[in-house]
């Protein structure tokens, strides 16, 4: 992780700070595409994402383990966060210079529509591979 950066929504009402990593990832799942209006490009912020006091952040519970944060005034998509607070990813578009993030991964690649593609090579992961990483273990300790 690098330096603490400021992020904002389109209208400027929602501001936050975070310490994002230098790399970005793309999610092509159906929820992210509908929520962001395209592929969602995010930087991992770990547990460093903090919204400023009074920011009109709206949180939408999109699954049993995650929620999405957006501006209650302009609707800008800002971040996906785990409900336990251990993980947050912020839209690179919320930061002043989104080009500072190198896109290195694409998840839910099997859900990506055929009408767009990234120009650079990235690591990829299918939706099943992603969910398998977070599924509860079924092995017993017997």
What does this protein look like?
The protein is mainly β and 142 residues long. Helix content is 11%, strand content 37%. The chain has helices at residues 30-36, 127-134; strands at 5-8, 15-18, 23-27, 40-46, 50-51, 57-61, 66-71, 77-82, 88-91, 102-107, 123-125. It has an eight-stranded mixed beta sheet with strand order 6-7-8-9-4-3-10-11. A three-stranded antiparallel beta sheet has the order 1-2-5, with no helix packed on it. Strand 7 (66-71) and strand 8 form a beta hairpin. It starts with a strand and ends in an 8-residue tail after the last helix.
Q: In this structure, how is the largest beta sheet organized?
A: 8 strands, mixed
The value of Rg in angstroms is: 15 Å
| DSSP strand count | 11
User: In terms of structural class, how would the helical and strand content be classed?
Assistant: mainly beta
Helix fraction, binned, reads: 10-25%
Percent in strands: 35-45%
What is the 3D shape? Answer: globular
